[in-house]
Design goal:
The structure is a single chain. This protein has 133 residues and is of the alpha+beta class. It has one domain. It has 3 helices and 7 strands, in the order ββββαβααββ. A 5-stranded antiparallel beta sheet has the order 1-2-3-4-5. It has a two-stranded antiparallel ribbon with strand order 6-7. The longest helix has 24 residues. The N and C termini lie far apart (51 Å).
Length: 133
């Protein structure tokens, strides 16, 4: 979906507008209050992408009566962009390179010293990976 910052709306694949409807505040167990902007489509009737676009197949409301809603957390998107910029910076590349050399190498040495080895254990339901000594 494309975002239009001037009008504060998203444009879907079919060219329909998702306008900001309201802002939802939710509080986590730790006490953090998140703010999500809820965008709703003006009209999804007759859209060829409706079945692919709208999630929630177990909803009691039939698909024909539903419209697209989108929840966007602006602070999360801001922090995500800042994190990506830090990771892709020259300093971030050096940190990532050093981590693979230092931390992962140390963990491998520790496993070798403690004589850990990987073994696959098969079960009727599924197979899982375990470490044994």
């Amino acid at each position: 979906m494309e975002y239009d910052a001037e009008l504060d709306l998203y444009i879907c694949r079919n060219g329909k507008r998702l306008m900001a409807d309201h802002i939802r505040h939710s509080k986590s167990k730790t006490g953090y209050v998140s703010e999500k902007t809820i965008y709703k489509c003006e009209d999804c009737n007759g859209c060829p992408y409706k079945a692919e676009c709208i999630k929630g197949n177990n909803c009691k409301t039939p698909l024909e009566e539903r419209t697209k809603t989108l929840q966007v957390a602006r602070t999360f998107l801001k922090y995500r962009q800042e994190g990506l910029e830090q990771i892709l910076s020259d300093e971030g590349i050096v940190y990532r390179m050093n981590r693979t050399i230092q931390t992962e190498g140390s963990f491998g040495d520790f496993k070798q010293d403690m004589q850990f080895r990987n073994k696959s254990k098969k079960n009727e339901a599924a197979s899982s990976r375990i470490f044994i000594r």
